[in-house]
Amino acid sequence: MSDYDLVIRGGTIVDGTGGSEREGDLAIGNGKIAAIGDVGGNGAEEIDASCCIVTPGFVDIHTHYDGQCIWSEELSPSSSHGVTTVAMGNCGVGFAPCRKEDQALLINVMEGVEDIPGVVMTEGLPWDWESFPEYLDRVDAGKRDIDVAAYLPHSPLRVFVMGERGAAQEPATDNDLAKMRALAKEAIEAGALGFATSRLSIHKTADGGSIPTFDADVKELSEICSGMSDAGSGTFQIVLDAFSGWDKEYPVIEKVMAASGRPATFTLASGNDGPPRWRKVLDMIEQSRSEGHQVTAQVLPRPIGLIAGLELTVHPFVLCPSWQKIAGLPITEQVKAMRDPDLRKALLSEDFAQGHPFNELARNWDWMFPLDDPPNYAPPKETSMAGQAAARGCTPQEVAYDRILETDGNGLFLAALGNYENASLESAHEMLSHPQCVPALGDGGAHYGAICDASYSTYLLTQYVRDGNGLSFSLPEAVHMLSAKTAQAAGFHDRGVLKVGAKADINVINLDKLKLHLPEIVRDLPAGGRRLHQQATGYDATIVSGEIIRRFDQSTGARPGKLVRGAQAG
């Protein structure tokens, strides 16, 4: 008879606390860590972790798996990159609460904001819930590889209470506010992690309109968050409209925290040029902390951006009028048509027609780079479309056009929209070094045709730890950021650290062999929908609640993932 369910032997243990790594074994029993150090006895299964690091499972508190967690048992790409717990419902978009007559409206919001095709949501979701607690029960009943937690999203809540008035951004009445506050309390008591919203101006519905929560009154946000106070738990997550200026936007957080007493977390990024406004935001955070408020900024460890390509949602010619002549053709036929001199001349000379803001970002030539294998997310500035055009004496459009033809339409582009200040990762590194900033914004489960950032944990370990390149974190620092620091920011105090009695969410990683692969297009969504996916090499094992869900970068088929109902005590 075995002494333990699983023993990991001879690894370098990096426990998530930020303390020094040490050599040793780790034993697991009944889904918990049973022993650490020189472990005697034997396990029913054993893993040789020599030449590997042993870390806590990683936590990503900014994802959108609200639909994928229902239609799929694997929450990839996140689970392919050592992530064992995710929080969804971010940005105030989701699928509950929802009456039957409002399903199309929520699909329109989600399709526009998160780039999930409408048919995928229509065919992939059973829509057998109305209230948010019923939605949580539906999630709880499913099987999946990793744990999920959910914020109560503002857009569905507003529409549920206000109907068309909510969708049209009309002000909430006192009666509306009372209903939303009560529903927030109900959601937290049922297991919501918190309440999430967005004020970002480029968050648009599929038909180009503003989302229901855009520019919502502070009174409304405060009342809803006071519903969390009534329940005694919950975090306020918000995407502020940095385009309106931090002096205008950050006070929204301060006012809501002051009114509700609840902690807050928000998205922070640097611009690529101009003054470093983000440093002032760090000062604002410190001021909030000095006043007794708990606030955390979420930072992507690499450039925030889009991936563009002919098979994807955006590319450099998608809104050109002449593109519409070939938009519905297979890629091979599109490329054949693009070789025609007359079409080439038209596409190179035409301006973009009006469309979704994300499309226009695919023509920011100064910050648009080729993305090849292995993917370089910190490319030299001269390799941008504008940089190459200057060297060749032609236009950036020509550089992009030629790349599409040279790769037979398969070439990808990285449109770096932020966090790449002066073509350097220095701003991202400095933000991540701040005590109140955590790595996040993987956005897994959304932006299926334009973003694939759920791999940021692998990027952080390779770019900032193993490879350094002048901007580095120690291994214990990086693991702490990816596990305990992020977990605690969301109220997950039962995970993120390797210690006896803790939940056995663990990674065994061959850091020397860890490699990030080029994003690929897969067609595994409902209705045959396509999405970007990204693989990694070097994860020898990922373990959730003591069960090995991935071995040598492949799924084992184990499905121990659960719904995490709200904040968790240590």
UniProtKB/TrEMBL annotation:
<dbReference type="InterPro" id="IPR011059">
    <property type="entry name" value="Metal-dep_hydrolase_composite"/>
</dbReference>
<dbReference type="InterPro" id="IPR013108">
    <property type="entry name" value="Amidohydro_3"/>
</dbReference>
<feature type="domain" description="Amidohydrolase 3">
    <location>
        <begin position="45"/>
        <end position="549"/>
    </location>
</feature>
<protein>
    <submittedName>
        <fullName>D-aminoacylase</fullName>
    </submittedName>
</protein>
<dbReference type="InterPro" id="IPR032466">
    <property type="entry name" value="Metal_Hydrolase"/>
</dbReference>
<dbReference type="Pfam" id="PF07969">
    <property type="entry name" value="Amidohydro_3"/>
</dbReference>
<dbReference type="InterPro" id="IPR050378">
    <property type="entry name" value="Metallo-dep_Hydrolases_sf"/>
</dbReference>
<dbReference type="GO" id="GO:0005829">
    <property type="term" value="C:cytosol"/>
</dbReference>
<dbReference type="GO" id="GO:0016812">
    <property type="term" value="F:hydrolase activity, acting on carbon-nitrogen (but not peptide) bonds, in cyclic amides"/>
</dbReference>
